[in-house]
Amino acid sequence: MKSIYAVVAAAALTATALPVWADDLSYNLSVTSDYRYRGISQTRLKPALQGGVDYAHSSGFYIGAWASTIKWISDSGGDADVEIDTYLGYKTEVAKDVTIDVGFLRYNYPGNDLATSANTNELYGAVTVGPATLKYSHAVSNLFGFADSKQSGYLDLSATFDVGQGFTLVPHVGHQKVKNSPGYSYTDYSLTVNKDWQGFTWGAAFVATNTDAYIGGKGKDLGKNGLVISVKKVF
């Protein structure tokens, strides 16, 4: 079993980088005051360095990789201090202002050495209508080190509103179900403000969850309400 150090969670501000919709190769680099995933801190409420690469073809197919520093596995008795995500998928517009996005995502924790491996495989599907996106992610392996957790799922609803002068507002709500470990299932919420300025995207997100089941190193409540600040560069 993953123990109370387990991490399954995410603020929209610091979630895995999404592919750019174009026939293009792009890179991204960011610094964040706390890596929150599905509302839960991956870094014991400490800062993280993150970066990724994405290739998106005009046909709709995309592939990419993204990495972040982490602390939760070492807090759980393992060795990994980095998360490396790899993904591929297909995104297309099916009607005016309506797109679908389906794909596969693998979370890799090299050398994690936990009793149940933290490496996780998920299939996902999303529908975007105007500014709103409904997405479901389904684990086809054990989820982030939880034993017997295959078939766990995460459902989230988010939206992106352009409020002018380079600002966007991103509300989000999600629910993580952990198969066979109902005490670790929870709901997370966030509200993010992003600002494009001087070639960077500056962000501030208020993140909250309805759980205190995720306790990390030094007794830190990894799901506590908090403000996350970040800066990101895409090139």
Description:
By secondary structure, the chain is mostly beta strands. The protein has a single domain, classed as Beta Barrel (Porin), CATH 2.40.160.40. Helices cover 2% and strands 54% of the residues. The strands form two sheets. Strands 1-4-5-6-7-8-9-10-12-13-14-15 form a twelve-stranded antiparallel beta barrel. Strands 2-3 form a two-stranded antiparallel sheet. The chain is globular.
How are the elements arranged and paired?
Layout: E1 24-32, E2 36-37, E3 40-41, E4 48-56, E5 61-69, H1 72-75, E6 82-95, E7 98-108, E8 120-129, E9 132-139, E10 153-159, E11 161-164, E12 167-177, E13 186-197, E14 200-209, E15 226-234
Percent range of helical residues: under 10%
CATH architecture title: Beta Barrel
Please give the largest β-sheet: 12 strands, antiparallel, barrel
- Average the pLDDT over all residues and give the rounded result: 92
Biggest sheet strand order reads: 1-4-5-6-7-8-9-10-12-13-14-15
Approximate shape = globular
Specify the CATH homologous superfamily.
monomeric porin ompg
Say how many strands there are: 15
Q: How much strand content do the residues show? A: over 45%
Q: Notable features of this structure?
A:
54% strand; Porin; 235 residues; twelve-stranded antiparallel beta barrel; disordered N terminus; single chain; globular; mainly beta; two-stranded antiparallel ribbon
Write a brief caption for the model.
The protein has 235 residues and is an all-beta fold. It has one helix at residues 72-75, and strands at 24-32, 36-37, 40-41, 48-56, 61-69, 82-95, 98-108, 120-129, 132-139, 153-159, 161-164, 167-177, 186-197, 200-209, 226-234. It is globular and about 45 Å long.
